């Protein structure tokens, strides 16, 4: 096996989500962005790398619901409190805070937040 890569489907917002993540996450790059030949505003193949983790993106089209549920989330270990709060502040814009930020056993800070695109992130900071 090589590795597991998160694959996120949207109806029509894949490119907007990729650009949003590129703006807020450190060391984030769009590696590939291809559109459907007959639907130039919809992403056929989107490849983003955040902190050495690959993510793939796809638009299903406005006629196809692509529900994203907070039961699946992406946990990110932060390097500092400043990095934690910088990313937290951007993710919460038009998003929904599920938990935190707060200290929990084993972590100095934890938050669970669903961003404006419906993707849920867990930001954690540990001094250990």
Strand content is over 45%
Tell me the structural class. alpha/beta
When the domains are counted, the total is 2
Low-confidence stretches: none
Mean of residue pLDDT values: 95
Query: How are the strands of the largest sheet arranged?
Result: 1-4-3-2
CATH class of the largest domain: Alpha Beta
From the 3D structure, determine the CATH topology of the largest domain.
Signal recognition particle alu RNA binding heterodimer, srp9/1
Number of contiguous helices: 2
How would you describe this structure to a colleague?
This protein has 128 residues and is an alpha/beta fold. It folds into two domains: 7-59, 2-Layer Sandwich (Signal recognition particle alu RNA binding heterodimer, srp9/1); 73-125, 2,3-Dihydroxybiphenyl 1,2-Dioxygenase, domain 1 (Roll), CATH 3.10.180.10. The chain contains two helices and eight strands. It has a four-stranded mixed β-sheet with strand order 1-4-3-2. Strands 5-8-7-6 form a four-stranded mixed β-sheet, with helices on one face. A hairpin with a 2-residue loop joins strand 6 and strand 7. The longest helix has 12 residues, at 81-92. It is globular. The model has no long low-confidence stretch (mean pLDDT 95).
């Amino acid at each position: 096996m090589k590795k597991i890569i998160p694959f996120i489907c949207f109806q029509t917002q894949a490119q907007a989500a990729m650009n949003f993540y590129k703006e807020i996450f450190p060391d984030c790059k769009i590696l590939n962005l291809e559109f459907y030949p007959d639907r130039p505003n919809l992403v056929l193949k989107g490849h983003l790398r955040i902190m050495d983790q690959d993510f793939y993106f796809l638009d299903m089209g406005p006629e196809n619901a692509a529900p994203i549920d907070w039961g699946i989330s992406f946990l990110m270990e932060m390097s500092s409190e400043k990095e934690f709060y910088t990313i937290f502040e951007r993710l919460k814009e038009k998003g929904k805070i599920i938990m935190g930020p707060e200290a929990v056993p084993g972590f100095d800070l934890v938050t669970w937040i669903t961003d404006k695109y419906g993707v849920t992130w867990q930001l954690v900071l540990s001094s250990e």
